Known about the structure:
Helix content of chain A: 25-40%
Oligomer: homodimer
Bound molecules: zinc ion
Strand order of the largest sheet of chain A: 14-13-10-6-5-18-19-20
Number of strands of chain A: 20
Amino acid sequence: MSKTPIDPATLDRLAEVAVKVGLDLQPGQDLILTAPTTALPLVRRIAAAAYRAGAGVVTPILSDAEVTLARYRHGHDETFDTAPSWLYNGMAEAYGKNAARMAIVGDDPMLLAEMDAAKVARAGKANSIAYKPALSKISNFDINWTIVAYPGTEWAQRMFPDLSADDATAKLADAIFAASRVTGTDAVAEWQQHNAALRARTRWLNDQRFDALRYTGPGTDLTIGLADDHEWHGGASEARNGVTCNPNMPTEEVFTTPHAHRVNGTVRATKPLAHQGNLIENIEMTFKDGRAVSATASGGEENLIKLIDTDEGARRLGEVALVPHSSPISASGLLFYNTLFDENASCHIALGQCYSKCFLDGATLSEAEIAEKGGNSSMIHVDWMIGSDEIDIDGIKPDGTLVPVFRKGEWAQ
Amino acid sequence: MSKTPIDPATLDRLAEVAVKVGLDLQPGQDLILTAPTTALPLVRRIAAAAYRAGAGVVTPILSDAEVTLARYRHGHDETFDTAPSWLYNGMAEAYGKNAARMAIVGDDPMLLAEMDAAKVARAGKANSIAYKPALSKISNFDINWTIVAYPGTEWAQRMFPDLSADDATAKLADAIFAASRVTGTDAVAEWQQHNAALRARTRWLNDQRFDALRYTGPGTDLTIGLADDHEWHGGASEARNGVTCNPNMPTEEVFTTPHAHRVNGTVRATKPLAHQGNLIENIEMTFKDGRAVSATASGGEENLIKLIDTDEGARRLGEVALVPHSSPISASGLLFYNTLFDENASCHIALGQCYSKCFLDGATLSEAEIAEKGGNSSMIHVDWMIGSDEIDIDGIKPDGTLVPVFRKGEWAQ
Lengths: 413, 413
Ligand SMILES: [Zn+2]
Ligand SMILES: [Zn+2]
Ligand SMILES: [Zn+2]
Ligand SMILES: [Zn+2]
């Protein structure tokens, strides 16, 4: 009998941690669990863990890669502008009644890469519009929610094309389990510790009230002004229903909002960017007063140019995030083609939309107030990696004082 | 390489027939496809067939037996009176906008047999209440809908406990494919022929305007009065959205409403009744003026008594259905533990609720009008088999004339 590629006991722990730490699911609380069919072994464990924790009704909403592909392969052209709004309206109703939400990712991140891009874009747009009532309750943080990952074989083979299905799956499983901090015997305690460490970082950064961060390293000399009244976030945080959850598992970053008009200098990406099925390699970008005035790449440059031409805000930054080089995902050296992992592998910045919660009292601010404080707005939000073990970062105080933040890719404090 | 237990080409045909004949799915029409995860191979084929037929969006809503069991095994007691009404409200919205509905059955019919019966009953009741807005649009026939079957391995092993998983699945697959009339090369044409044959039967029966049917056979001498203005139905029929569909695949029966107060004599069941995980064997029942005045069984008699004691209507008949002994399901000699099949294996009667559509202009009748015409009402509707190759049935005209309907289990006309 061959060894199963995904260790069942560790998968049990991941389910346990997802319910207890990712969600902190409350007794009597319903749970909507979206997942790909490939993740069924984790879906079943999460359902059991949720019921043991006193869940009301757990409702899995399973998507299937083959069914999704069937639409693009056989669907009639005139139907690509529609979406199942009835399902999303139902979800919005459930969140309105305090159901928690967990999403499992696990499908091939490049699933639609070979489908007709125009149809994918039309269906995506129709879906975004239909999903808005439900998504807004998640992004407003009305309820506790989380995203976790399952080592689907198609995803694994995308990452490790030279390995057998079993070997690739085993390797992705190891990487996900390590990144999700469930390899130890008391994963819940480890997560409590990890959340406390992230909280200490955000507290320190918020106390510093830096005016800007300056990045120096090979090909990089970049000063990122921070937005007025910016606030650093990271790890666990409290939803409006009073439950403290971890919206992403794994999570390594602490992040805040840069000032859309106060970014100057040049930055070199340290990892390729996987964007909509394409790889963009060796990005270099120069900013002047917040605007990217030049952008080059050794591979996929035309996709990069198309991306920053999306709208005016696509040339400006909406997020700055700090992740030490020694973080488990970074240490794995892997490219996951999935933001949940890749953005937690390295210090990163994002072109496009900012997070309103990354302001003091962000929930109460209007869009105009956010813009006035330097918050960027755009239809896109695309993270890319600028961290490495050669990057130093200094915090610049309003009086010009420099405070070491990162040295050689690690926290300096 | 071993032969796969379910022939892929025949499964393709089943998907095709389900979409074209079961639903007659219309271009641009959305489809809600409920199914157990075990039926994924059929789900994928139906999605592809639906998209080829011009479907809008196909949304599978997959249930999972393990997730369902997890609730009964681990769920806290106080949560068994709740249901995911958000999902059913969403479905009702979709049906209100003319989405079609297909259900696939395929799970072990005895799945919940070993779970706490009280919890199963509470959850079932909560679910029925929550599902009502969606179900009423189906039972009112607002939209085209159908139910088809997939040979799930757990179901197969319940039917063939002595066979290996693969052999049991292969045997159930053969039985489902034969019963669903998809073993030939032009299954759509075969279904059109079958529907025409059923239509000829219902037309003849409706023209006869029988006052009653008299059944004679071993242990059986039963006269079933038919309701005033009863109407026979069977096979394809037209939904209120104008689409003609086959709500059940397979379907062999023609059926109508008996008179709740004009049933007299004794009847012996010809097959065991599988009811809520229990088998009730060798039922004998005597009726006087419509009411079951004695009921015995050689096995599970206490369950039979509990059943007919549910409410006043549970002791009276709500359906009478005619199925020739030579129908493919009957010929298989199998007990499927699933009404979709077992009720199409044999002439049957049902204790409990009648169908309002089995009256002339039934859609316009009030509950009081239905009761006045002899239609029964009850919380239950339980079919049981009374047909065999030894049963004769005569139609009795209002003037007492006898017309042979069945001889030795087959149509006499
Ligand atoms: Zn980030
Ligand atoms: Zn980001
Ligand atoms: Zn029937
Ligand atoms: Zn029935």
